[in-house]
Write a structure and sequence with these properties.
Distance between the termini: 37 Å
CATH superfamily: Aldolase class I
Strand content: 15-25%
Strand order of the largest sheet: 1-2-3-4-5-6-7-8
CATH topology: TIM Barrel
Order of helices and strands: HEHEEHEHEEEHEEEH
CATH architecture: Alpha-Beta Barrel
Length: 225
């Protein structure tokens, strides 16, 4: 398949100085304060069973901060309505959405960027990505757990050594301040070449939906330097 890159491409890797973008997910109770830190993305969860379910008015945010709507097996019309109401630029599909659904969503809202989530625990078959290669803009790799997200622990990033695509991806799953050193080491490895952003959530919360600003600022500075 033409989306698989060669060994010579993989050997280029990162030089260790590549700054990963930052996405803070599960926004709800202090969105304005988090936005003031100017992360690249803020994630708003529109899955009702979530403790971080977003169902309030969207505050004014800096133009540079992109709003991501997180959905789990939602209907097409539900996603379209949220995109229009909240001015979402990206959607993160965290359920069993198939390639046909992604294609239909892209057709309905062409300007929308689609992040398709895949959960990893001890192993992962990267062939699962192939049907989505032409119908989404990013992948997101999260830790497989009881919930669609926010399980609070990391997966083995070494599995990404086998990443076969050139599509940019988000790295998620239980990432906190203790992972800063690991992220810097990861940035030096070939498998980080297409890592677009680091996604954080539960490790920076005082309570679900309420983020610890000091810890987020320390993390943002830590992965940028």
């Amino acid at each position: 398949m033409d989306y698989y890159y060669s060994n010579s491409d993989k050997d280029k890797g990162q030089d260790g100085n590549h700054p990963f973008r930052l996405k803070v997910c599960g926004m709800n109770k202090n969105t304005t304060e988090v936005a003031a830190l100017k992360p690249d993305y803020l994630g708003f969860i529109f899955w009702k069973p979530s403790k971080r379910h977003f169902n309030t008015a969207m505050p004014h945010l800096p133009h540079s901060v992109k709003k991501v709507g997180v959905f789990v097996n939602a209907e097409l019309d539900e996603i379209k309505s949220a995109v229009e109401l909240y001015g979402l630029l990206l959607v993160q599909l965290h359920g069993k959405e198939n390639p046909a659904f992604c294609k239909a969503l892209k057709k309905e809202v062409p300007q929308l960027k689609i992040i398709k989530v895949f959960s990893i625990k001890d192993n992962f078959d990267f062939n699962e990505l192939l049907p989505f290669e032409s119908v989404c803009d990013f992948y997101l790799f999260d830790t497989k757990g009881k919930l669609p997200g926010g399980n609070g622990y990391t997966f083995n990033w070494n599995l990404l050594e086998n990443y076969p695509s050139t599509k940019p991806y988000f790295l998620s799953g239980g990432i906190g301040l203790n992972e800063i050193a690991s992220i810097k080491e990861f940035a030096k490895r070939p498998e980080s070449k297409y890592c677009h952003a680091i996604d954080v959530n539960s490790k920076f919360e005082i309570e679900p939906g309420l983020k610890h600003i000091g810890k987020l600022e320390k993390f943002k500075n830590g992965i940028s330097n």
